[in-house]
Amino acid sequence: MLARRARSLKAGKVVILLTGRYAGKKAVVIKTQDDGTADRAYGFCIVAGIDKYPLKITNKMSQKRIAKRSRIKPFIKVVNYNHIMPTRYSLEVDLKTIVNQEVINRPDARPNARKEVKKVLEEKYQTSLKTNKNRWFFNKLRF
Questions:
Q1: Do residues 1 and 68 touch, judged by C-beta distance below 8 A?
Q2: pLDDT of residue 82
Q3: Could you tell me the end-to-end alpha-carbon distance of the chain, in angstroms, rounded to an integer?
Q4: Closest-CA residue to 138 (of 28, 60, 62, 58)
């Protein structure tokens, strides 16, 4: 089972987290590590996802209100392969330059990386509103 999951996970693949604080949240795989490392002896991947999704927007709302409701709260996390469910979808977002192993290991670098991820995801959300492409990623999962 682990080998099958590891094969299907590549950078840009959308996954759903199954356990922990962000259970039920969608995330994008940034980097995979099938064999593990010295400090993590299991296969894992680095993901960036959405903790708080943007709220619904209607035509009669002002630009200020739309900007406020379009905010996204992201997260960055290292997740065991067993705790994620891969989907058939992928998202064209380049986050490898922002989030890497060094950022994960240094707690003081994480807030800056989260701010950069927030900018990228909010830009992607704005383009998805105009083109109706990848809009499903920015909607809360209802289950």
A1: no
A2: 93
A3: 25
A4: 28
Provide the 3-class DSSP secondary structure of residue 138: helix
Q: What tokens does 2 get?
A: 């682990």
List all residues 6 or more positions away from 41 whose beta carbon is below 8 Å from its beta carbon.
none
pTM over 0.70: yes
Residues 6+ apart with CB under 8 A from 97: none
Question: Is the pLDDT at 9 greater than 90, yes or no?
Answer: no
Average pLDDT over residues 65-75: 95
Q: Which of 100, 142, 139 is nearest to 14 (CA)?
A: 139
Tell me the C-alpha to C-alpha distance, in Å, between residue 102 and each of 76, 84, 110. 13, 22, 10
CA pair distance 26, 16, nearest whole angstrom: 5
The pLDDT mean for the chain works out to: 90
Instruction: State both tokens at 59.
Output: 């035509």
Tell me the two tokens of residue 93.
């977002």
The tokens 């950078």 sit on which residue? 11
Q: Is 63 exposed, middle or buried (0-12, 13-18, 19+ CB in 10 A)?
A: exposed
